[in-house]
TrEMBL record:
It comes from the Bacteria. The chain crosses the membrane at residues 45-62, 74-93, 99-118, 139-161, 173-193, 200-221, 233-251. GO terms for cellular component: plasma membrane. InterPro entries: TM_pro_TauE-like, TSUP/Inactive_protease-like. Keywords: Cell membrane, Membrane, Transmembrane, Transmembrane helix. Belongs to the 4-toluene sulfonate uptake permease (TSUP) (TC 2.A.102) family. It is found in: Cell membrane; Membrane. It is a multi-pass membrane protein. This is Probable membrane transporter protein. The keyword Transcription regulation does not apply.
Amino acid sequence: MITQLLTVFCGSLVGFSLALTGGGGSTLAIPLLLYVVGLHDMHMAIGTSALAVSLNAYINLIPHAREGHVRWRAGIIFTIAGIIGAFVGSEIGKVVNGQALQALFAVLVIVVALLMLRGRKASSHRPGGQAIKYLDGRLGGVGYGAGAVAGFFGVGGGFMVVPGLMLAARMEIIDAIGTSLLGVGSFGLATALNYARSGLINWALAGEFLLGGIAGGWIGAMLAQRLAVKHGVLNWIFSTLLITIGIYMLAKTVHL
């Protein structure tokens, strides 16, 4: 019973993070499954979290869409390319040592967070920025790359999808967060299906994670809408979350 309650609680944290920032889903879910819930297999944690985070992302997409913060055309182009990349990346990731995967992933998360902080400071001097230009080729290329990396590490990839959409389609962060949930859900589902073929999903834990994520997701979406009017707040939260997660996972990997 305690394990089930812990799993639901951890799921609520993941759902909250997904809805608030568009990322942090699997990057939170994997260490929570390993160190709080008690899964001892890295690949099992990846498969289970990919399924739970995928379904959470689709559910959290609903309130963002209602608020008009989902750019469907850009999101669909980005997602289709990313699904192909996710299948390729996840096939490779399954044969890589779990500890090596975790260490590489932690470093990647920290680098992306630092680039996001740098990008936020640089973008504050750009005029306009309200018009979104859908560059199909660019969206497809960035989407494929984000999907491949997400599949390799077994995550939804929100930490790459959000900046990827901002770069390729020149979106405001609140729109990139809402749109990213379409990609996060699809990338995670592609990864989960690949891991399920190898029997690397704990279905009961995935269901409990999803249950908690539904409640946390609605709260996160409401908070994201309120913070959208404060310039740079969501960027700062997103980057700080990634740096914290990356340092924690790296420390656990090297047994600090």
